[in-house]
């Protein structure tokens, strides 16, 4: 797929971090971008910077997702690109013992379900609705209609202590990538997933410098945190390379996460 002003894209979680970097990279190629995010202030600012449109969307809310796609398509046309970056994490052990009282507590199921709803169901919700829209488009010269890129995590394969919910949600994204690519192959829509390692995003920026330095040192090479634009560059490659389909690719400097 060639990137130019004739192409529109929707980026979920596009107001910051990996999503914003991807929106910036696509917009630099002339692509018209719509940013889905629940952070209205940051989302509006990003859309203004990129000449795109902001849609306030919580990916767990069906009505908001529908309204977001309707607003985006009215403003910039039917998207040929969907990049799913909306997501969050949590750290709770499956069962734990309070160090002071000795009380034993199981992982609260509602907290587990929330992570699944955001990271996995929210991603699939946006894929299904975007793909349905892409199916209305005329095929490009190579028979392609659209491209979808999802965000999983290296935790999908080597989750750490306390990451049962997060790892399950991200493993689910990896697990559905190939079946989705197969579901959509007859309509010329590709689907791929990136598994980022430790990236320098706003979420990590709140961590103390010594913590970030230790994380950087744990990366085999290069010994640093990933740059959001490196994620965006891989997303762009997945979008523009027509033979890239049904793949889940780690982007992590060769790290394999230890238990903690």
TrEMBL record:
Pfam families: adh_short
PROSITE patterns in UniProt: ADH_SHORT
Keywords attached to this entry: Oxidoreductase
A molecular function (GO) term: oxidoreductase activity
Gene3D superfamilies attached to this UniProt entry: NAD(P)-binding Rossmann-like Domain
UniProt keyword Transport present: no
Family that this chain belongs to: Belongs to the short-chain dehydrogenases/reductases (SDR) family.
Protein name: NAD(P)-dependent dehydrogenase (Short-subunit alcohol dehydrogenase family)
Lineage of producing organism: Bacteria, Pseudomonadati, Pseudomonadota, Betaproteobacteria, Burkholderiales
